Amino acid sequence: MASAATLTPTDTDKLQNLRSNVSGLTQISENEKSGFINLVARYLSGEAEHVDWSKIKTPTDDIVVPYETLAPPPEDAEKTKELLDKLVVLKLNGGLGTTMGCTGPKSVIEVCNGLTFLDLIVLQIENLNTKYGCKVPLVLMNSFNTHDDTLKIVEKYSKANVEIHTFNQSQYPRLVVEDFSPLPCKGQTGKDGWYPPGHGDVFPAFKNSGKLDHFLSQGKEYVFVANSDNLGAIVHSKILHHLIQNKNEYCMEVTPKTLADVKGGTLISYEGKVQLLEIAQVPDEHVEEFKSIEKFKIFNTNNLWVNLNAIKRLVESDALKMEIIPNPKEVNGFKVLQLETAAGAAIKFFDNAIGINVPRSRFLPVKATSDLLLVQSDLYNVVDGFVVRNPVRANPANPTIELGPEFKKVSDFLSRFKSIPSIIDLDSLKVSGDVWFGAGVTLKGKVSINAKSGEKLEIRDGVIIADKEINGTEDI
To answer: Is the dihedral of CA 98, 103, 106, 110 positive or negative?
Structure first.
């Protein structure tokens, strides 16, 4: 915790008042109270957020390991079972589907073939356990927003060959900027008064839930942490094998940047340690350089492999002081602050930490309906719960897709397509206005479809559109 000596007298008073206010909050545990006060104390002490640009070095291949240099895992089924029995899979399941117009956990949005993110995750692990006779458990880290719904949903997997555990990440009070008091003390006693403090909280919350010690007692050694909406984040024995052989306590999967990922965090060597560099830490005069895909060629996929004993050691010694991300918001007329941390920023605290530069196929997030169009199309097939790229497509890159606001909500998106178009040969698609797609449409090359203001534009069944700009029915 930041010592009081580093705080101004005003800040010390703020912290004292906050501590006494927080002590009276009955909705959260003592661990959550102290975790929150620690975070605020560090924030008030003004820990440096920016890095010294001149000290940044490009990581060498022994720090960011090229995927193709990894040794193959053992081919023997018994050895593979032994390896996989050391693993726990943890999915970050705290997010709501609000961006895509859904209520409830994002992981229950139907992705393809009528299956949700969660269905696919359970199927994948179930197939692994059945194939090798291993017992890889699935752990869901929920937030107070997703907890109740998730508990109801996981009941349907009670007969699946996978043990499912859930725990909640911390619940912290939003801070009222004006007087630094917790929002619940202003009469905001509902969910609006609280927030989950980012996925950096996964390590203390995992430990505080008792789950970490439970898995250590079963002989588990590593946890694979990933976002529940990343369809490419599947268990990979080759990576696990490498980490065990080389005693790496932490591994971040990175992948080559494209122009769509220029704001993503990247790995650097800094003062002799591997470190995550996020755009928020970059001095203003270097932001364009940070976005360059020539200098910073890789970005963080948020697929993380972490040693369980190392998590226990670092949480118990309160050593995980990740950079604080201040997130200002306005809630019910109050200007509030949420202080958050990111799991990737923990890399510098672990011994022998590395990155692995993995193929792009391991990063397939669904953040918007444009991503949903990709994975529901003929560009991907679902095999044993795995979303696999169609080998027929020659171009290794995915098409770029921009859909207008009419397609933003999942329900609107689905109603505007009689069936998802064939996009095997598509390079880019831009759709704006009141556009509706018939069944069996094929899109190729560069396609732009713009409905004029106030007009409805229907793409007829079976139409093939190749390298064309369409502004009205007469152009089809």
So the answer is: negative
Query: Poorest-confidence range of 219-223, 267-271, 353-357?
Result: 267-271
Distances (CA, A) of 48 to 27, 43, 282, 288, 347: 32, 10, 11, 21, 18
65 SS3 class? strand
| Domains of the chain by start residue, with CATH | 49-160+200-324+336-362 (3.90.550.10), 369-475 (2.160.10.10)
Q: Are 437 and 412 in contact (CB under 8 A)?
A: no
- Mapping DSSP to helix (H, G, I), strand (E, B) and coil, where does residue 36 land? helix
pTM: 0.94
Which amino acid makes up residue 18?
Answer: L
Query: For residue range 439-456, what is the model confidence (pLDDT) as tens digits?
Result: 999 999 999 999 999 999
Closest CA relative to residue 416, chosen from 425, 426, 406, 424 = 406
List % helix, strand, coil for the chain (3-state, nearest 5): 35, 30, 35
Q: What is the DSSP string of 68-87?
A: GGSPPPP-SHHHHHHHHTTE
